[in-house]
Specification:
The complex is a heterodimer of chains A (180) and B (335). Chain A has 180 residues and is of the alpha+beta class. Helix content of chain A is 29%, strand content 33%. About 3% of the residues of chain B have low confidence.
Amino acid sequence: MNITLASENEYTIIFDQLESLISKENIDNLTKHYKVLINRSEKRKSVYMVTEEIFKQYQELFTTEESRKDLYWIGERIGFLMKEKLLIGIEGLSVLGELFTEKIILKEKNATKFLYGRDVIIQENTSKYTKETIKLIQDEKGRTLGLGKLVYNEKGEIFKVKNVVDLGKYLRGEKTLFGN
Amino acid sequence: MGWERRKKILFRIKIFKRVKIRKIEDKKVEYFYNRWKEFYGKEEAQRIVDILNSPQKRTIATSILKKTDSEIIGSLREKGFELKPTDIRNAYFIEYEPFATASTLEYLSGYFTIQAVTSLIPPNSFDYDESLKEKRVIDAAASPGIKTIQMAIKMGNSGMIMAIEKSTKRLPQLLANISRMGIKNTIVINKDARRIESIKTDFDYGIIDAPCTGTGIRWKKEKRTKEKSRVDVERLSKLQKEMLESVWKKIKNGGSIIYSVCSLEPEEGEKQIDRFIKNHYNEIQLETIPIAIGQSGDKINTKIENIDEIAKTRRILPSETTDGFFVAKIRKEIR
């Protein structure tokens, strides 16, 4: 694998997208404490967030392309870079989950459905949400379930939360998510 | 030929095949049974065979990286799970599960790992102090990642763990587990741990849960055990020897290795370490394992040269709560 530091362009793509989901303050915190590395050997390029401590080890041990040949994974993967777009994966929620600005709380039955990978119908006042962005989905106890998108009907009212990714994927999609 | 008659013939062939397969399997079991009689005594060997045929209790090990131990256990108990503490801190036997433990939100959120209790012994055999947060650790055969994860938790997600896994097939499980548990301090290398000379660093600690015959694992879980033979004991003990030698070269003076196998064969355990001591007599110090499970390694009936040192290792025979296991803590002290 050829995992190297994100280029300026990649960095901009990633953080421009994150800025629509996370507050400015949290973005500053992320950029202060993490380095971003990209796996260039894959079609969908894995994006890793790496602590300063691990980055130091990376700089020391993986300076040449030859030394990076067997490097398969580093720090925490947040998702993939594909066609100039960041696709946040379920594994990214451990770094990014708590930082999302918009959260949708699901009641118990809906939370279970969502964890099984299904879209769920919700009935609530939705004017507080921005239309396009991905939202963090949580249960009533504030536990993260995954990411979802709001789907609107013709009248512009929300009628369901589309499942983008959910923690149940760890059981259902181990090989597709983490295989090569 | 009528359909009914055809069905009867097919059924007979199927039965015949089944009987044939069972016979071959029993022969293999007999081979190991005879060995265990020699090493552990007749009664113990019979008990091992019975135990390996029975189901085993699994454990959960909580992670303090996300929630407190009592929060996690409380939440599972609320759902009807019955959990009983083990001899290892933060680990609980699953006495009763109202539904699959792996499908709980607590598991999916990375609050705990599920494993046999013996898998928790290696990471818990290292002494804990604050300096652990700055150490470099190598895990030589990392997948499915339980030892890497438990070590990372112990290190407070700091320092660095290099998780080596040779098999590409086994990588997804390792990656899914470290991701789910929110592990930040790990670098995964897809490489044979016997060929790590090109890695330009030394490590404070090493974990070698080596590939082994797995003769200490329940047969339901590890069907391959029944397919193992003398050739496998020889082949795998050679591989373990090479792995030990390779990782040992990468350990700093004053550092240590935890070597373990889930095998009941002394060639992979007591004798393997006995030979290792002989080859490195001027740079080795064995240390006792600080966990009171099983018995000391010198109880086995086989020829051991460094009996006082082997007495510091631990041999765990299969029981209702444990798999068969061997573990040794080897400290590097160049004299």
